[in-house]
Design brief:
This protein has 23 helices and 22 strands. The chain is of the alpha/beta class. It folds into three domains: about 110 residues, Beta-Lactamase; about 170 residues, Reverse transcriptase/Diguanylate cyclase domain (Alpha-Beta Plaits), CATH 3.30.70; about 190 residues, EAL domain (TIM Barrel), CATH 3.20.20.450. The strands form four sheets. An eight-stranded mixed barrel has the order 13-14-16-17-18-19-20-21, surrounded by five helices. α7 packs across α8 and α14 runs parallel beside α16. The longest helix has 28 residues. Bound molecules: ligand C2E and calcium ion (CA) (2 copies). The site of ligand C2E has 23 residues, from β14, α13, α14 and β18. One calcium ion (CA) binds next to loops.
């Protein structure tokens, strides 16, 4: 018996030792801290990772007040109540507290064990560090309202705040202004200095704008390089004018990037006002955006106030877009050709293919109007392909009939040229009509190069290698400097009509044009002057050494029959 009892005791001891070991292990590995309370013995014990949370220990009821002192004020009462749930007969409760000065967020979980009579016997209070989790939650809330890059409001929240402004304005009979602000030539920064520099600029400017916010002025980072400002009851220091002036003043100074580079920027701003321009939030923003484009087209670095006429113009654009969708190429489009002549001997050098559009009602729509729209909505690709096919087809007919050496110039837009497969498509059409690449000249504008310099100049090189001539259109209207042209795979430069227009009247234009022609020739390119309307202009350009002349003076754009007539006469003379 006795031996049996000793054995049992030994077994019991061993179990206890094992339990204790397990408990110790649990405590050592737990990241939480515990307070254990034994009701019968009125004994407190702190366990596990206690030091992570507190620099004092708890061994009796009094010590608990140390805990109350340590939490931020608003958590004191909930903590006092939460720790004694047995008063309400409950067995489990959890809540969060924040410690003073340490920024620690703690989840407190209280468990009470009752005996069969319903008397509490043990209590375990667990402290768990949830600082990280809470921060993540806060971040999510932050992200719902703010733009991470700049600290300004994000688009969605801005629209909500603007909505609140509008409701208030309706009640109080006030105005609300929206300023839609877009960086000018942001691409130039992104392409020239890299995307990281672009991002940093967006960020720096955004951070500057944060300082302009107040209860009646809310600002948001709308997208990449677009910011939107809503002003409640704009007047005085918060009038659109004043805010614009302040921003513009800031933009006169460069932004300093972390890599030491300095960048200056200008913005274009469109302004619409409730209730004059629109009554709804999105309409108001739309109106401001539309007039912003007007500010751009007026030459950037400008502010444009809402004006019904601009909206109408925009609506016309939309109408054209819709009309473009319904276009049946053969029915609505036709090709015109404008002759180009050698300045020296007046011989016909070639023709430029220019598209014409007559809509279903019979109205003529200028390519200057619809080509930019077609470029924006992508319809330029099928239109461009149609232009190439139609022009080459007509060209082949002239050649077969008249055997006159002509160069066919085709306008190719950036979107079209960038499209993969463009070169293959062009080559296939040339093959189909048995036209050699040497008879073709592709006209591209300078903007095409600025957008994607490397890819486009590579494409142009491939074309040039295949024998196609490359011509740079509208020279002098964009950014290009002569040194930038060096190394570009081009054969011909077309001097823009704006130069020709003032050539004889403006001394500066005269000097610029003279030096352009001189330098371009030295670089080995041919020059074409376009928009030549008078004999005097022709004569003068010829004297300057300009190679080719195109313009109303020599011949307007005409249907293919007109060119056939010219060729008829030319070949008749020869023959
Ligand atoms: P562009 O390539 O600069 O074409 C020259 C424009 O100047 C043509 O206008 C032509 O009719 C006009 N022009 C020529 N000589 C004179 C002149 O002596 N005086 C005046 N006042 N104007 C003259 P158009 O045909 O209205 O074309 C406008 C623009 O539309 C073209 O400018 C070109 O950029 C674009 N475009 C025309 N056809 C096509 C096309 O098939 N594809 C593409 N991508 N663009 C085209
Ligand atoms: Ca052209
Ligand atoms: Ca041109």
């Amino acid at each position: 018996m006795k031996g049996n009892g000793t054995q049992q005791l030994a077994q019991e001891n061993e179990r206890l030792r094992q339990d204790e070991k397990m408990l110790r292990l649990l405590c050592e590995t737990s990241s939480s801290a515990f307070i254990y309370y034994n009701y019968l013995e009125d004994r407190f014990e702190t366990m596990a990772n206690w030091d992570h949370f507190f620099d004092f220990s708890i061994s009796n009821m009094e010590d608990l007040s140390k805990l109350y002192d340590r939490v931020e004020e608003q958590y004191e009462i909930p903590l006092r109540e939460g720790l004694f749930i047995e008063k309400n007969g409950r067995d489990r409760e959890s809540f969060e507290i924040k410690l003073k000065e340490s920024r620690l967020c703690i989840e407190v979980e209280v468990n009470v064990v009752y005996d069969s009579d319903g008397k509490p016997t043990d209590k375990i209070i667990r402290f768990k560090d949830v600082t990280k989790l809470t921060a993540q939650k806060d971040e999510l809330t932050y992200m719902a309202y703010y733009d991470m890059l700049t600290g300004l409001y994000n688009r969605n929240y801005f629209v909500r705040l603007l909505g609140e402004f509008l409701r208030r304005a309706e009640k109080e009979g006030k105005n609300v202004a929206v300023m839609f602000m877009d960086f000018d030539d942001f691409r130039r920064v992104n392409d020239g200095m890299g995307i990281i520099a672009g991002d940093e600029l967006v960020q720096l400017f955004g951070q500057y704008l944060v300082g302009l916010m107040s209860s009646n002025v809310v600002i948001s980072h709308f997208s990449t390089d677009i910011y939107c400002i809503a002003i409640y009851d704009p007047c005085g220091a918060r009038s659109v004018d004043t805010i614009y002036r302040v921003i513009r003043e800031r933009l006169k100074k460069p932004f300093k990037l972390t890599d030491g580079q300095e960048v200056t920027m200008t913005v274009s701003v469109g302004v619409s006002e409730y209730p004059e321009a629109a009554l709804g939030t999105l309409e108001l923003i739309n109106c401001a955006e539309i007039v912003m484009f007007k500010a751009k087209s007026r030459g950037k670095d400008k502010i444009q106030y809402f004006d019904g006429a601009i909206l109408e113009e925009f609506l016309q654009t939309v109408t054209i877009q819709n009309k473009l969708k319904e276009v049946v190429f053969e029915q609505n489009f036709t090709m015109y050709f404008q002759p180009q002549y050698y300045a020296e001997n007046g011989k016909l050098r070639g023709v430029e293919a220019l598209i014409r559009w007559r809509d279903n009602k019979g109205d003529m729509i200028s390519p200057a109007v619809f080509i930019p729209i077609a470029e924006r909505n992508g319809t330029i690709v099928p239109i461009g392909n149609w232009v190439i096919e139609k022009s080459v087809q007509i060209y082949a007919q002239w050649r077969d009939k008249y055997h006159y050496p002509l160069v066919l110039s085709l306008n190719v837009s950036a979107v079209q040229c960038k499209k993969r497969g463009f070169i293959d498509c062009l080559m296939r059409i040339l093959e189909k009509y048995d036209v050699s690449p040497g008879e073709i000249e592709v006209e591209v504008t300078e903007t095409i190069l600025i957008e994607d310099f490397d890819y486009i100049s590579e494409q142009l090189s491939v074309l040039k290698q295949a024998g196609v001539r490359i011509s740079l259109d509208d020279f002098g209207t964009g950014f290009s400097s002569l040194s930038y042209l060096k190394g570009l795979p081009i054969d011909t430069l077309k001097i823009d009509k704006t130069f020709v227009d003032t050539l004889l009247t403006d001394k500066n234009t005269k000097i610029i044009t003279e030096s352009i022609i001189y330098m371009v020739k030295r670089l080995g390119y041919e020059t074409v002057a376009e928009g030549v309307e008078t004999r005097e202009q022709f004569q003068y350009l010829k004297e300057l050494g300009c190679d080719m002349i195109q313009g109303y003076y020599m011949g307007r754009p005409m249907p293919s029959g007109g060119i056939a007539d010219i060729l008829e006469k030319l070949t008749a003379k020869v023959g």
